[in-house]
Design brief:
This protein is of the alpha/beta class and about 280 residues long. It is built from ten helices and ten strands.
């Protein structure tokens, strides 16, 4: 349960009594979504402007006129006079300031537990769609619990966030915000390479889909060749990419998230994966 003595959630508790009146709930960790932006001049104003721009796009895409958006960020940003959604007239857009390190994450995590996971609340199970817009691993345990209880959960990541190994394993459905196929798949593979340490800024990596024109979803033709090119004179990065179950894991994740069977070529050499 939420400790009201430590966290100022009183407004949140009052406004979320009737969550089943919404078709969808979005928990948005806005700072995670826009990434680690640094500005030399007017940092707060420019950072808040980036927040506003992202939220404009996000709400434009996902608002079906009956969705609830719960936004959390550092109190300096949420409280700024430049923040567009500080006093939003729409009753479906709620912004909550957080304090301290990881405060924004904790606001959202506790909200998820209180209204969607806890068996002690007075709400019926939520019937709509549930979105967590964050790649922070602090949400991983909540995601596991949500997916045990609901079949309508989505994880949203961005190209600017740092999506880690743990988050990619817990969610059953993922969307890359702002990207459609095949760009979202290319980003996903690049992100995986960065996680394993095989893709870096110094090795000029490039990921290509070879037979994109041959995909025919209507006929269930879901095999895809993916070529990875990078500077790797001593096979150092190839070793990182292939160590342990890295390749099998990548293939299984692409199958789970995109419904595709991929065959990987590393600098034009096929990477063979043993069938289990």
């Amino acid at each position: 349960m939420i400790d009201l003595q430590d966290k100022n959630y009183l407004v949140l508790l009052r406004k979320l009594k009737n969550i089943n009146s919404y078709n969808a709930i979005h928990f948005i960790d806005i700072e995670n979504m826009i990434g680690n932006l640094k500005f030399k001049s007017n940092p707060v104003k420019r950072y808040v402007s980036a927040m506003n721009n992202f939220l404009d796009d996000y709400i434009d895409i996902y608002d079906d006129k009956n969705s609830l958006f719960i936004i959390s960020a550092n109190s300096n940003f949420i409280g700024s006079s430049f923040y567009k959604y500080k006093n939003a007239d729409e009753n479906n857009i709620l912004s909550y300031p957080s304090l301290g390190k990881d405060g924004a994450d904790l606001v959202l995590v506790d909200s998820i537990k209180e209204y969607l996971i806890s068996n002690e609340n007075e709400n019926e199970p939520f019937l709509g769609r549930i979105y967590i817009a964050s790649s922070d691993k602090k949400f991983s345990s909540s995601i596991v619990s949500l997916q045990e209880k609901y079949q309508n959960f989505y994880l949203i990541i961005t190209t600017k966030g740092n999506t880690g190994f743990q988050m990619l394993h817990v969610a059953n459905f993922l969307k890359v915000f702002g990207l459609q196929f095949p760009e979202d798949l290319l980003f996903f593979i690049k992100n995986w390479g960065e996680i394993t340490g095989s893709f870096t800024e110094n090795n000029n990596f490039n990921v290509q889909i070879n037979n994109i024109d041959s995909i025919n979803f209507s006929e269930n033709n879901l095999d895809l060749d993916v070529s990875i090119y990078l500077k790797d004179e001593d096979n150092k990065y190839l070793d990182r990419f292939t160590v342990g179950n890295n390749i099998k894991t990548l293939i299984s994740l692409v199958k789970k998230y995109f419904g595709l069977n991929i065959h990987i070529y590393f600098n034009d050499l096929p990477l063979l994966v043993d069938e289990e």
